[in-house]
Amino acid sequence: MITQDLKLSSSVSAENIKHDDSLQKLKKTSAEKEKATENYRKASFTKRHLFTLAATFMLLLGGAFSVYLLQPEFQEMNLGRMNTVGGMILLILTSFLLIFRLSFLAYIAKLFFSYKPVTSVTDEELPTCTVIVPAYNEGKQVYSTLKSLVNSDYPAGKLQLIAIDDGSKDDTWEWMKIAKEELGERVSIYQQPHNQGKRHALYRGFNMGTGEVFVTVDSDSIVQKDTLRNLVSPFVTNQNCGAVAGNVRVLNNEKAIIPRMLNVSFVFSFEFIRSAQSVLGSVLCTPGALAAYRGKAVMNCLPEWINQTFMGQPTDIGEDRAMTNMILKQGYHVLFQRNAYVLTNIPEKFSSLHKMFTRWERSNVRENLMMSKFAFKTFRNGSKSGPRILLINQWMQMLTTYPLFIIMIVLLLLHPVLFISSTLLSILIFSTLPAFFYARKYNISEAFWAYSYSLFYTFGLFWIAPYAMATANRRGWLTRELPKKR
């Protein structure tokens, strides 16, 4: 295993030996990651995984059985509600929200079945492309990212690759220099004078880039050989296309249970939700892990994007959602390419996961407000009902966050057994859709993690949305700590 710190020896010969040894080991590591990329659908199960899944279904089925046994108590509680004004209001509110959610889900499902990814165009048709990789405290992973990009089947003469170290405190810059030495003119590397944040690193790349299309890739991600050409092709076939979202999967899904669960969640979020949004030309967020932007559209909003503020403070999060909003505002369509895969590392521990989700939720609050400023105006030609419906759904989730949170606390205090058992039954029912979706497309056994994730989120992360809304003005990336040594 290569150590995290790359120390330069005073002896030239010793340095060369160590350098060659690092390259050999790194090549072995890269080969292992390529194998993992090819076999990500076939993650194996350990005793810990089987125990977690077994415990999940014992809880969920136990909850369902409890609901059956407690039918008299449920009837008594519901009758009691109907005899009070507050109870009737609660019944009407919950019924309305359930009907709205089911109707919206049916709408998304209809759109999903209309979705088709754009077929890759020929080498001659592909535009010039600048790929920007911002890196901070990524260590040796940045090398694997750059290597996967260089190995793409995109025409080399049309591909410009820029990697920017954002003032890392570890050996990220050293690994970027190793990549530069091995990959030569295929990659250009730069170093920020000090840590300024991902947005500023991307801004530098946008200003240096010469491509007709910009692609941003996180430095902890691996792309497949055909990813770039598939991602960029919609710009050729659709002149209204201003941005394209890639298909994000989990790279480290074999290492821990949290990535295992999120791998299934990501498939539903991207391949179902974003596919439907793409039919409307209104994908709400192009992910930082993999996204493409029409160069002209980026330059039109670049000053506004880099100088964006929220409540009087510079914005240092949500750069991907902000860029998406600003491109939608120009009248462009934002699409999703299901055939443009990227595998990215995600947090393996709860402490890092809830920070990542908090950052995402704060960004959603900010950007929903921004989108509301133009979505109900004539911001583009053609139908605008699709993006408006998507925004209304976002607002429904925000506006009901606190009422539902309060209702949950009250029911938990007054009827703990009834509340928990009915919640477990709801998880069992509503998790079946993402589980079925994943099973149909990939792997039946892995699909069961959808139930574990819903259980984990409902009881472990339910507080994130109300907390993020209350603290939406706070700055900070939250998860930019140094990687642990191995």
UniProtKB/TrEMBL annotation:
Enzyme class: transferase
Keywords recorded for this protein, A-Z: Cell membrane, Glycosyltransferase, Membrane, Transferase, Transmembrane, Transmembrane helix
EC number: 2.4.-.-
Residue intervals passing through the bilayer: 50-69, 89-109, 404-430, 450-470
Listed GO MF terms: glycosyltransferase activity
Matching SUPFAM superfamilies: Nucleotide-diphospho-sugar transferases (SSF53448)
Stored InterPro entries: Nucleotide-diphossugar_trans
Subcellular location: Cell membrane
Protein name per UniProt: Glycosyltransferase
